[in-house]
Amino acid sequence: MSFQLFSRFPRFFHFFACLLIAIPIFSYVSAVPAPADGVRNPNNKLKITPSFTSESNGDVSGIQSGSPDLSGPPRTGKIKYHGGFVNTGTIDIYYIYYGSWSSADRSTLDFLMNNIGSTGYTKILASYNDGNNKSLSGNVRLAGTFLDNYSVGKSITDNTMVNVVSNAIKKAQWPADPGAVYFILGSSDVNHTSGFCSDFCGFHTFDTIHGADIKYAFVGDPTKCLDGCAPLYANSISPNNNPGIDGMASIIMHEMVESITDGDYDAWFDDFDYEMADKCVWNFGGSTFIKPARNGALYNLDVGQNQYLVQLLWHRTKQCRLTA
Ligand SMILES: *[C@@H]1O[C@H](CO)[C@@H](O)[C@H](O)[C@H]1NC(C)=O
Ligand SMILES: *[C@@H]1O[C@H](CO)[C@@H](O)[C@H](O)[C@H]1NC(C)=O
Ligand SMILES: *[C@@H]1O[C@H](CO)[C@@H](O)[C@H](O)[C@H]1NC(C)=O
């Protein structure tokens, strides 16, 4: 299918549905619209609506999003396997902290990845299988972290991303593992020139790096575009006291599960190219799951002693779920 022609274009975590029309290649990526209004002009919050209503199971006052733009084909169709590679073992996740990172923010994201495997959240992955009908394990682990002090500057491009990943694998002496997922996590002063904060919150892609087919993703700290890439939290408080980092937590989960189930863009997606997290994007579970956090914010998932607000994921047969 024509999809193949564009297989190397990243699958974006989108939020301007209009770009789907304006830039045809985007119709092949897993469009993930986010709250759009106010992103290009952060002061324009007029169109923000106070709930996720139709896409989540109810409204919880306090969590607001700028009208998630979920226009386009329905996200509820059957997700299908297209024959491509999926890793059924424990998935090694590597974090490249790019730019300036505080140890507190790193520990929020390290802790999430170190402990998410025990929550039942990643067990949703076990509803998917490989070409031999073997189920995915649903296990992930943080296999390494690396600090990159702006090696390609404050603006990352599609091309320089490859260098960032390649350099980290070399310097940190990580394996070049086709079954792993490598994340570039940009600090709040780091841009991605393909449209971070204006067209997407994050995306995953793949390339041959050190001779292996490496799955990797970019997720930036959306402090400059919270109303586009993070839920607007009650009183601006987020569960781990940094709305940008808490916003990243959910986007990292999104790109992680999609890299695992569709890392080469030829495995699990539906008839409209929605991958498993696209199908539940900006759905935090409404009043069924959202509850008050210790610090007065709202959250939906206990991960060890920490609390996070993460989007639901599409279970192959049970639809959007917080845990398997
Ligand atoms: C996988 O399982 C499905 C349903 O149980 C079956 O229809 C299909 O033939 C199986 N495929 C393989 C490769 O075993
Ligand atoms: C990062 O690079 C800047 C400028 O090159 C330098 O001033 C700073 O000390 C570096 N930071 C670390 C942690 O290496
Ligand atoms: C990010 O890069 C894009 C493309 O070069 C640019 O249009 C945009 O203004 C940049 N954003 C920031 C916050 O620098």
From TrEMBL:
Major localization class: secreted
GO cellular component: extracellular region
Compositionally skewed regions (Polar residues) per UniProt: 47-68
Superkingdom as given in the UniProt entry: Eukaryota
Keyword Metal-binding: no
Signal peptide range: 1-31
Record-linked InterPro entries: EXORDIUM-like
Start and end residues of each stretch annotated as Disordered: 47-74
Location(s) in or outside the cell: Secreted
Keywords tagged on the record: Secreted, Signal
Pfam families: Phi_1
PANTHER family reported in the protein's UniProt record: PROTEIN EXORDIUM-LIKE 2, PROTEIN EXORDIUM-LIKE 5
Similarity section: Belongs to the EXORDIUM family.
Designated name of the protein: 4898_t:CDS:1
Organism: Paraglomus occultum
